[in-house]
Structures are given as C-alpha cells and as structure tokens.
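Notes taken during the Thursday session

The instructor put the following on the board and asked us to keep it in front of us for the whole hour. The protein is nicotinate-nucleotide diphosphorylase (carboxylating). We were told not to look anything up and to reason only from what is written here. First, the residues (311 in total):
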Amino acid sequence: MTTPDSTPDHAPAAVTPGLDAAWIARTVETALDEDLGPAPGRDVTTQATVPPSATGTADLVAREEGTVAGLVTVTETLRQTARRLGLPEPEVTFHAQDGSAVVPGQVLATLTGSTQVLLVAERTLLNLASRASGVASAAAAFSRELAGTGAQVLDTRKTTPGLRALDKYAVRAGGGTNKRMGLYDVAMVKDNHVVAAGGVGAAIRAVRATFPDVLVQVEADTTAQAMEALDAGADFLLLDNMPTAVLAATVAAVRERQGRDGVAEHVELEATGNLTLDRAREVASTGVDYLSVGALTHSAPILDLALDLRA
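Then, after some discussion, the predicted structure tokens were revealed:
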C-alpha cells in the first residue's frame, strides 16, 4: 500500500503541519466501532453477500466541484478494516492530494483488493474525507475572495467534538489559517471574563501573571473598548460584530497608536461576526489582518464524494 511518504503520483501530499498519525488511528477506530459495533464488529449485509475471497477495484470519485481534504485518512481506514476482518489490506493509488481543486467525476484514488474490506470501509472512509473536503472547500472559497487583500481567513473553536484536528487540518488544506487550537494555547478575554475579573486591565494582568507564556487577545465591540484593551497591553484584538465603517475607524485608531506609548509595532487585528463570503473583501479593505469565520467548521456542507465499485 502506498503511504503519504511515497511519490506524489501515488500518495496524497501532507498539508504542513499534517494530521498526527496516532490521532488518525484513534479516530478511525472510534468511527469503525460506531459503524460495526465493538471490535472486530460486523457488517451483516456485506459479510452475507460477498465471499471473503472476492476481490475488486473501486474508485473514490468527486461528485461536485471543491477542494479535497482527508485523503490522508484513507489508508488507515482500510488498514484497520482489513485487520478486523482478517483479510488482506487493499492497495491504494492516489490521483489527487489534500488541498487539490477537484471537479465532478474526477477520480481521487483507486482502491484494489478485498471486496469485503472495500465495502465495509466505505462509509467511514467517505464520512471523514467528505467532511474534511467540505471544510476545505469553504476555506478555499474565502481564501480566493481575500487574495491580494493582505488578510487571511481564520477558523474558530466551533468544531465537531472529537474532530477538531481534522476540521483544522481541512482549513489549512483550503488555504486558511488556524487560530487557537483550544483554550490552552491563547488567552481570549471576552466580556464575561472582563466582568468576572473586574475590568479589561485586571483580566489581562491576571492572565500575564498566571500564564506569562501565552498571547493575550481581547474582544472589543466598540472603538473605545479596543483602545482600552490596547492601553491595558493586549497583544491581539478581536473586533466583534462592528459595522464596516466602525471597523475601519477602529483599525485606523489602533494603527495610529502602534509603536507609541508602549504599544507593539504591529497589533494584530481580527474581524469576526456575520462574516459572509460576499462581505469578505469589504471587511478586508478596512486593514484587519484576519477574518475569523466560524461557519468554516460549524456550517460547511460536506463535499459529495463516492466510492464506486467497478463492475
């Protein structure tokens, strides 16, 4: 079987940084348990109608236009399925790589081997790749819209529980950028934290005293709140649900303060809230560094992929 370390003609290139192999293995195991029951599990239809000795070839095909991702999970899905059934692992030849633009009818991979393994693995394989490809396609659409603006599209923590690594990998495959991976790597001071701590400055000081190694981002709904956060020492401002004119004025006010009075030379600015594709360039024109779009992961429809067994 080919692997992501094989030649580009036969294996999907890993998006850097790629998905952790141990994470893929755990996720595939859980997904197969859901579909087959506890290991080794069973597929009552396939195992009743297809003899273990049968072999065949199937094509993984795109049914619609988009950006593909999740191909890096295919080989592990087949490997674990074959192990559960006690059958040989199918061979895979990839014709596309994660991050590739695809069109309807395009064959992404050819799978050859045990027909039982191919059919039992089908739904798990498609669930992972279709989900990831849908997220990648959404990220790619924003990336194309923002091309030349200097702004990048960011994801959020609004991911499917248990699939965050896949969701964020897919965003990267589509040309987007990951924000924080969780609550542990970046401090995000929101309105409830300000209330709990007794003010923006108090909240920032508390984070810096407790976790001096993390960046501190502060959410602001108005220009005044943004300037207050800047004065309190925020590294990064999240400008939430601001009308375009207010957003532009806030960006200008922050940029005017940069490099003076202890403010960093460049404060990173992120626009968020009701950011649709048709507003993307308008929002980017205000001078923000990022647009964070929760819909990339919480609302992206899957990309329709299919596994077609050759007659």
